[in-house]
């Protein structure tokens, strides 16, 4: 099927360094291990080491270096890749008790928007999962996850409201390695307000996601509507390093899904 992905070495190195920082073993002001030390520890060439260091720099965890060893910065903790991909992982990472209620699981023909997101033909079969997810018993987000049928067919037998979709797929060797997310503030419809136990017109944080494997195969399109009073965004960036966040001013009245290409 061409969708089973293996972890790359730079990801292992980046996770090792992140763990050192988050555990406090490397404190703000401490230098990172040298390239030579990391190459020896992981039996790696310099390429994966430099890629791992670039990941931490983009996350705002370390200084830019500029010819010297990068220094650990005083920065807020960051969410893991999985926590930004999966509501279940997000709640687990924050120590919250997750819950859920399945609204719908079905095989459907892909509409134009979904087909473009997943690089399918309009009308191709997809599997949609719609749920309300709760955090510590409070409804927090409505999620709509869509997968090409060859991937999503594994989800049609889901019966437990709180099963992790991504854990089910991971058990079959299906893992996302790249995700693009775009968010916009919207307001709750009457139906959304009922599901989330909020007032109609209350603010929502609407997030659209496209996920792919490192081979570039598109495996998921998702829409999340988070309660606005339950979400907070924290960012830390370093001058001179890449900033994987873009703020845009959009036209008033722009609806979710009207963004055009994600790099606009």
Automatic annotation (TrEMBL):
Task: Give the superkingdom in one word.
Answer: Bacteria
Q: Which PROSITE patterns match?
A: HTH_GNTR
Keyword DNA-binding among record annotations:
yes
Q: Name one GO biological process term.
A: negative regulation of DNA-templated transcription
Entry's Pfam families?
GntR, UTRA
For the keyword Transcription, the answer is yes
Keywords of this protein's UniProt record, alphabetized?
Answer: DNA-binding, Transcription, Transcription regulation
Q: Which GO terms describe its molecular function?
A: DNA binding; DNA-binding transcription factor activity
What InterPro entries does the record tag this protein with? Bact_HTH_transcr_reg (IPR050679), Chorismate_lyase_/UTRA_dom_sf (IPR028978), Tscrpt_reg_HTH_GntR (IPR000524), UTRA (IPR011663), WH-like_DNA-bd_sf (IPR036388), WH_DNA-bd_sf (IPR036390)
SUPFAM superfamilies reported in the protein's UniProt record = Chorismate lyase-like (SSF64288), Winged helix' DNA-binding domain (SSF46785)
- Looking at the record, the residues that make up the HTH gntR-type domain are 7-75
Q: Which PANTHER family match?
A: MANNOSYL-D-GLYCERATE TRANSPORT/METABOLISM SYSTEM REPRESSOR MNGR-RELATED, MANNOSYL-D-GLYCERATE TRANSPORT_METABOLISM SYSTEM REPRESSOR MNGR-RELATED
- Give the protein's recorded name: UbiC transcription regulator-associated domain protein
Where is the organism placed in the taxonomic lineage, from the top?
Answer: Bacteria, Bacillati, Actinomycetota, Actinomycetes, Mycobacteriales
């Amino acid at each position: 099927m061409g969708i089973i992905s293996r972890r790359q070495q730079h990801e292992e190195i980046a996770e090792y360094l992140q763990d050192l920082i988050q555990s406090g073993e490397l404190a703000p002001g401490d230098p990172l291990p040298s390239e030579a030390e990391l190459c020896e520890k992981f039996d790696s060439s310099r390429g994966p080491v430099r890629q791992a260091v670039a990941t931490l720099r983009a996350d705002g965890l370390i200084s830019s270096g500029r010819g010297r060893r990068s220094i650990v910065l005083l920065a807020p903790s960051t969410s893991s890749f999985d926590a930004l991909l999966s509501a279940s992982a997000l709640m687990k990472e924050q120590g919250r008790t997750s819950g859920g209620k399945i609204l719908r699981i079905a095989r459907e023909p892909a509409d134009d928007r979904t087909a473009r997101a997943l690089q399918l033909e309009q009308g191709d079969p997809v599997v949609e999962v719609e749920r309300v997810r709760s955090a510590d018993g409070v409804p927090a987000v409505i999620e709509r996850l869509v997968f090409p049928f060859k991937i999503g067919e594994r989800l049609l037998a889901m019966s437990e409201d709180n099963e992790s979709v991504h854990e089910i797929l991971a058990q079959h060797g299906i893992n996302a390695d790249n995700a693009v997310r775009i968010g916009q503030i919207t307001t709750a419809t009457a139906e959304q307000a009922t599901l989330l136990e909020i007032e109609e017109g209350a603010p929502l944080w609407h997030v659209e996601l496209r996920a792919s494997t490192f081979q570039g195969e598109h495996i998921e399109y998702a829409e999340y509507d988070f309660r606005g009073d339950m979400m907070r965004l924290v960012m830390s960036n370093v001058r001179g390093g890449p900033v994987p966040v873009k703020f845009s001013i959009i036209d008033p009245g722009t609806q979710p899904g009207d963004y055009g290409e994600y790099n606009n």
